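Posting for a labmate who doesn't have an account.
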Amino acid sequence: MTSSFAPDSLVLNRKLPLWYQVSQSLRASILGRAPESSLRLPTEEQLAAHYGVSVLTMRQALKELEEEGLISRHRRRGTFIEPGARRGAPRRLLGSIDAIVAQQSGELTTVLGHGPGPLPAELAEFYPGLPEVVTFRRLRRDADSGEPTNWAENAVRPEIAARIDLDDLCRWPMTKVLRDAVGVGISRITDTVEATLADPVTAELLQVPLLSPILHYTGVTYDTAGRVVDVARIRYRGDRFSFSVTVDAGCAPGPG
């Protein structure tokens, strides 16, 4: 029996465009929906009431998802999730935690392994004085094709890692696990994305040629006390992903 589609709740951040926050939250709900859920979305009015925004804001959010190819809108029929929507579309990052969660939703995740180990030298700047971290390794696949899309290594503080349920990691991105399952208060995440070449491990896991182009993402997560609680290093297939960053000129100076 098909169940109705239910979007996640969202705490709005008044420093970011409302339409963007709503679109990212709805995107995560669409990609992470249960297989048996309905492809038909609630009406614009119902979604607007759910998120506490105006109908105009909701329309702008839906327009963003329509342009990405996740939904289609039909006059007098309603709005529908595209069953064959691709999950490798470009990501637009504006800095909300829900945007980070949305980046990694809607994929099949396998935990490759986890365990404590000495702090890697390249992470020493994030964990000064910490002798070891617990590393979680995961492989993500496209839910439709089963094709590998990215693999991730998360270096987490031991006392926090001890509270992580591996079943949660198979269902949700690490950011959502830390925030919603473990209860870590997250204050900010700093992101770095760079182009690099596939090493032997990455080439084997992502099924790409050795030294082929990939995107290497590093996300450093801070709690409300200002401590780093997680450093994520994710390798994305270069033929499946691109990232775009939008800077609000009213909030930050340009490089010139």
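Reply:
Got it, the structure tokens are right above this. The chain has two domains: 18-81, 91-245.
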